[in-house]
Design brief:
Blueprint lengths: L1 E3 L9 E2 L3 E6 L2 E6 L5 H6 L4 H23 L9 H14 L14 H4 L3 H7 L13 E5 L2 E5 L9 E12 L4 E6 L3 E3 L6 E4 L10 E13 L2 E5 L5 E7 L1
Antiparallel strand pairs: 1-4, 2-3, 3-4, 5-6, 6-10, 7-8, 7-9, 7-11, 11-12, 11-13
Helix pairs in contact: 2-3
């Protein structure tokens, strides 16, 4: 790169096919052309891996968007960009378990036919700002909760259970939600049923939604909303 401090007349944008010129303040900068063109990116063999990564990233992003649309009324509104980026990153990591297709053509639908991918999706937290303040297990169509620890100053916690039927091929689905359950601190003994939905294997996400609440005149009002938790507790 070189700086031209004095010049006159019309300035060309390029010199031959090797150098580009542009203004920077009162100076004129000349530098060698580097990087790549869109034509090279689309057709050059040296960018083959870039094209494969972009293709897979696009499919994963589209699948994640479809899921987020279904969960629009459930996912936390705070720090939405972090929710979006974390989900895309996590779902893209599942492609390593996809063995049916070559790199560049892998899909989440195929990845989720493998038990390893299912296990990595189980327990996923949509809100990276929160943690699960309790223990749980899912048996049949029921969720058992135990050992909850409420933050200082919080007296009530609310739970809602959902089932998302989502086709990872067509990216279409439905959301089935239960009602709210309000509880205070406990150690064991709580059990709730998920909505009953007929779904093909590995296309159902069992989801736990958790909010902290305060009770005012018999009404429950959400508090500490930035800590709202939404987890995939089971893929079935």
């Amino acid at each position: 790169m070189a700086r031209i401090k004095s010049y006159s007349g019309k300035i060309p944008k390029r010199i031959l096919d090797q150098y580009v010129l542009y203004k920077l303040g009162e100076e004129l900068i000349i530098r060698e052309i580097s990087g790549f063109t869109s034509k090279e990116l689309l057709h050059s063999a040296k960018y083959a891996n870039c094209r494969k990564n972009a293709s897979e990233f696009g499919r994963v992003s589209k699948a994640c968007k479809g899921l987020r649309v279904l969960l629009a009324g459930i996912l936390p509104k705070h720090n939405n960009l972090a929710v979006v980026n974390a989900l895309t990153k996590h779902m893209r990591s599942l492609l390593v378990y996809e063995t049916q297709h070559p790199r560049g053509e892998r899909t989440l639908a195929s990845a989720l036919t493998h038990e390893e991918a299912i296990q990595k999706l189980n327990g996923y937290a949509f809100n990276p700002l929160t943690h699960l303040p309790l223990g749980y297990k899912v048996e049949d169509n029921r969720l058992e909760l135990f050992d909850i620890t409420l933050p200082e100053g919080v007296l009530w916690v609310g739970f809602r259970l959902h089932v998302v039927a989502y086709d990872w091929d067509t990216l279409e689905g439905t959301l089935h939600s239960g009602g709210w359950h309000f509880e205070q601190q406990f150690t064991t003994g709580l059990s709730y049923g998920f909505p009953k939905v007929e779904v093909e294997p590995r296309k159902a996400l069992y989801i736990l939604e958790l909010h902290y609440f305060e009770e005012t005149d018999g009404a429950f009002l959400p508090v500490r909303t930035e800590e709202k938790g939404v987890w995939v507790v089971k893929v079935r």
